[in-house]
Predict the structure.
Amino acid sequence: MRNRNHRVEIYFTKNELETLTKKVRRSGLSREGFCRRVLNGTEVKEAPPADVPVLIREVRRVGNTLNQIMKRANALGLMDVPQLRKALDENQVVEKLIVDAYTTSSD
């Protein structure tokens, strides 16, 4: 059964509708989804550029590689593991910044 079964009709001026339409386009959401998020007090961010998901995957890949190198180096006693740990921590900070900047909360 459908959860959202109550309909509301709203009238806008031309300028109000244009403003709403611009914000909806920038968010990448449907008009209804945008309105629900705004009404629920959720911050609506602009949709990320198309290459951001690729950037996030690449940063995660680098982090995974650093983690594997660190584990192997630690097991063999070959490298300075604290420096690798620092690099991995910095990579995770960058990943979090990117994800937080370009992802939205779900309904």
User: Anything to note?
Assistant: The longest helix spans residues 52-76. Helices lie at 14-27, 31-39, 52-76, 81-102.
